[in-house]
Write a structure and sequence with these properties.
Blueprint (H helix, E strand, L loop, with lengths): L3 E10 L2 E11 L4 E5 L6 H8 L7 E6 L2 E2 L7 H5 L1 E4 L10 H11 L5 H11 L15 H13 L5 E5 L7 H18 L2 E5 L3 H7 L2 E6 L2 E7 H6 L4 H7 L6
Parallel strand pairs: 3-8, 3-9, 6-7, 7-8
Antiparallel strand pairs: 1-2, 1-4, 4-5, 9-10
Helix pairs in contact: 3-4, 3-5, 4-5, 5-6
Bound molecules: adenosine-5'-triphosphate and magnesium ion.
Magnesium ion binds next to helix 1.
Amino acid sequence: MPVYALNNVTQTYNGRTVLDITALTVQPGEVLAIVGPSGAGKSTLLRLLAFLERPSAGQIAFQNNVVNEQWPDLAARRSVTLVFQRPHLLRRSVAANVAYGLKLRRASDVKGRVAAVLAQVGLAERAGAMAGTLSGGEMQRVALARALVLQPDVLLLDEPTANLDPYNIGLMEQMIATANLMQRTTIVMVTHNIFQARRLADRVGLLWDGRLVEVAAKEAFFARPSSPQTAAFLNGEVVY
Ligand SMILES: Nc1ncnc2c1ncn2[C@@H]1O[C@H](COP(=O)(O)OP(=O)(O)OP(=O)(O)O)[C@@H](O)[C@H]1O
Ligand SMILES: [Mg+2]
């Protein structure tokens, strides 16, 4: 059973269709990377997958339930976590930010779990710092930590490592890969970085002007792109 199945899904804002996906399925436990130029609709797709918006038309099924007909219940919505392109942290300590979602869920051993995930992202020593004093890379790591600590079934990542240095990119990628490997977390990640897609993804999709022009296993996507847009994108001929 696929985690998601999209069927003729469109999203239209003010009469302008920015997303038009004929078909897309996401399989449990896979890492699907979505690449594509700026404005292609990548973040819009993630918002739909996170149930933050309803599509203008078409069907999204989540674990075989059609979302448009019956909005997913709290448990289903909580099984999906989106890390935003520009995450907002609460004006509280790093530890409080990471603990927040767990407390909402009335989880047990909040302290222990927060400490463990902060150690994992290399921020144990910053646990008591106010979130606003962190560097950009540290904030992005907190945003990922706060998602991972919830152990979601589905993790949606919007440019998780944009503007990070290679060391932080490596740390973040390790966390993403570990969550996928150890918890079998299904991951849909948007990235501008085709090398990152190559390192992390099982399948890669190219979104182009709202359309998914190609979705293929990573090896085929990079070695034998079937669409001219993919070839152009991979050759760096696309102007962002
Ligand atoms: N709420 C909205 N209202 C109106 N237009 C929107 C809205 N959200 C997105 N758009 C438009 O939809 C198009 C796709 O936006 P989206 O943010 O999904 O692109 P993207 O692929 O994530 O781009 P980037 O790589 O720059 O983040 C853009 O032209 C954007 O201006
Ligand atoms: Mg975006």
